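#help-structures

NK: newbie question. if I give both the sequence and a SMILES, will the prediction place the ligand too? trying with pyridoxal-5'-phosphate
OV: yes, paste both and it writes out the complex. here, I ran yours:
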Amino acid sequence: MNTPLTHSPLNCFPVKDDCLFVGGISLTELATRVGSTPFYAYDRRLISERIQQLRTHLPPGIHLHYALKANPMPALVGYLAPLVDGLDVASLGELRLALDSGMPPETISFAGPGKSDNELAASLAAGIIINMESEGEMERIARLAEKQGHRPKVAVRVNPNFELKTSGMKMAGGPKPFGIDAERVPPMLTQIGALDFDFYGFHIFSGSQNLRAEAIIEAQERTFKLALELARSAPGPVRLLNIGGGFGIPYFPGDKPLDLRPIANNLATSLPEVNKQLPEAEVIIELGRYLVGEAGIYVCEVIDRKISRGHVFLITNGGLHHHLAASGNFGQVIRKNYPVVVGNRIQGSARETVSVVGPLCTPLDTLADRMELACADVGDLVVVFQSGAYGRSASPLGFLSHPAPAEVLV
Ligand SMILES: *Cc1c(COP(=O)(O)O)cnc(C)c1O
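OV: that's the protein plus ligand as structure tokens.
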């Protein structure tokens, strides 16, 4: 097999007659149904199973939120909303999507540095919780709230004095544009009290894409400790404690899936003390890619098969303009191949080492670099797994003016 992942995506998506099945439909049939390639397909069953797995392992006191930035497809958000306890948004567009899903406003929170006045005004009008990221933002909220006649529902996003170790993306510790430095939070809490805001609690997000349970446990422990300390200066009871997420998914050969059990066990040990000290606080874990990343594939079609000085290139109609992350240009330091197969001939009758490239006139447009795949020809369907998060919406769709890929939920 060309994907030496210990946890192969082929365990998630069944294969019949050498063809991949998505949501009970063969890939070739699905491609006909979608009507054009390339496309993204997301499998409802896999999303539900992932949430069920979290509910089974995590203590019942943990509230699960979905961070829309991982995948904002409206049908997917609508499907997920009733399965989770809240939604986290980071723009006006995401806020509208979250409200469209029918989620109650007090379960929606808005984080992000650089919220515009329009975004703050919309948040106040919608009655969602604003995770404040600076003193300046707090002052703008106060002005807008007075003008609009609303009492702002707020939480404080804290930039902790630690980071989530060995994370794909570090978003806390040291100087950061996200949140308010922990040491500045107590005086800010006094101001929040004086402004008579409706104070909900804290948001402490320390990193993303982590596959090491011990690192996540350590960050959660430090988060609880920090939150309990800060709570002493709070202008009212802490009703919300968002401890971030950071749960990663395996993308590359050698990546091992995150083991939830030690995280769940540790939370079961720590939660009673947190509940005792902050009896009104809902403890929230916010996840993006962990909920949807493995449930999605990107499918493109072979347009040409070309041999250059002995090396086979499969040239497809899909590429980095649709799937920046799989091309290795979305924050990766060293380019590695996402798991890729020829979806309509998984094993094939013969195999060869090829590079899968897109139609763009740049060497960056590579979906698979020297990978062993079934021998493929024009019209065959190349599948990139682990594409349910940070796919379409995280790609430069306008680059080279090709059509955007379709998206389906099956
Ligand atoms: C991006 C982000 C998330 C989601 O990250 P994943 O790695 O997709 O789980 C959650 N919370 C915040 C504050 C974020 O910025």
